[in-house]
Specification:
Blueprint lengths: L33 H20 L10 E6 L5 H12 L3 E5 L13 H9 L4 E6 L4 H8 L4 E6 L5 H15 L6 E5 L6 H10 L5 E5 L8 H9 L3 E4 L3 H4 L5 E4 L10 H7 L7 H4 L7 E3 L20 H20 L3
Parallel strand pairs: 1-2, 1-3, 3-4, 5-6, 5-8, 6-7, 8-9
Length: 326
């Protein structure tokens, strides 16, 4: 990874790997460089071919993954479980911590120490920013951050970047327009940092109160990324290659009146897309709550369900690299 000097190219699929990923935590996109992305995406393509050809195999037979989710999840939780099972491993699934010892007041460090005794890696989703870092400080086994409140969602950013590359064949030279809740959207916070490794232009379309955090904008500016605030989606849609839509996150609001006021600010429908490029793609980390009309689902530019499937291949790649034989 970016700060790891022991770098070696992974061997062809199915052979033993001497990987800089082996045994490492996956906590933030800041730990990745372009070489890391190339490695992950190459393995993800191999995983995709393998699933299409034979469905599953035993690379991680005997390994156990724990999915520990303090917040609701459908895609992230299920795709990690499916990824592990397709690689021949097994999964301990904890989707509702109210039925675990957390309901008795158990701390996150103690929960991590307990579950790592039964597993080889832990996928953690938690409502507090920095929770994955906290878990990693106490863990002897790899922690994979599946979302730490409004902080980051690194594996989502990896699958989003992989989706763009698979759908459009490139990353450099693209204009990416991000729409919706850019303040609380951890998927956006992680994605823009990966995109900053490439030559892209970013448009931000959001209500004033949901703009991308100023500190993150400053970080991107320092990296030389061209950025533009634009309240009018129709104005930038014709130049857009990737339209990345997010929902307004009700669970992050303390003022429900404010949520109701802005939650329908931007809706993507067939009429709006008439002015979009023929090769543009529409992405969404899902779930959607009215911000993309279901009539868009039949548009070939609607990539969000394909994006969801790409996620399993990327997570298979990460598990193989983190847990694979060194």
């Amino acid at each position: 990874m970016a700060n790891n000097s022991n770098i070696s190219r992974h061997l062809p699929f199915g052979e033993k790997r001497d990987s800089r990923f082996y045994g490492q935590h996956i906590l933030t996109v800041a730990q990745f460089d372009k070489t890391d992305l190339a490695t992950i995406f190459e393995v993800a393509q191999e995983m995709r071919a393998m699933v299409q050809r034979v469905g599953s195999f035993d690379l991680l037979k005997g390994k156990v993954l724990t999915n520990l989710f303090y917040e609701p999840s459908t895609r992230t939780s299920s795709s990690f479980a499916a990824a592990m099972q397709r690689l021949g491993g097994s999964v301990i699934q904890i989707n509702n911590v109210q039925f675990s010892s957390v309901s008795k007041g158990e701390s996150l460090p103690d929960t991590i120490r307990t579950l790592e005794a039964y597993s080889d890696a832990i996928v953690l989703r938690h409502p507090e920013r920095g929770s994955a870092d906290t878990a990693a400080r106490y863990a002897r086994k790899p922690i994979i951050n599946a979302g730490d409140g409004p902080g980051e969602h690194p594996t989502q950013a990896l699958l989003d970047t992989f989706t763009i590359r698979e759908e459009l064949g490139q990353l450099d030279g693209l204009t990416v327009t991000l729409v919706g809740d850019l303040k609380h959207g951890r998927t956006v916070h992680s994605l823009v940092q990966l995109l900053a490794l490439h030559n892209v232009r970013l448009n931000y379309v959001s209500p004033e109160s949901l703009r991308l955090p100023a500190a993150l904008q400053a970080q991107l500016a320092a990296a030389g990324v061209e950025q533009r605030q634009q309240p009018d989606l129709a104005a930038v849609l014709p130049e857009t290659d990737v339209l990345y839509v997010t929902r307004v996150q009700k669970e992050r609001f303390t003022d429900m009146a404010e949520y109701e006021r802005i939650q329908g600010s931007y809706v993507i429908n067939a009429a709006l897309l008439r002015s979009a490029r023929e090769r543009m793609i529409v992405m969404h980390p899902l779930p959607r709550v009215g911000e993309i009309d279901m009539e868009v689902d039949n548009d070939p530019r609607a990539a969000y369900f394909r994006q969801m499937e790409y996620g399993m291949f990327v997570r298979m790649a990460l598990l193989a690299l983190v847990l694979g034989k060194a």
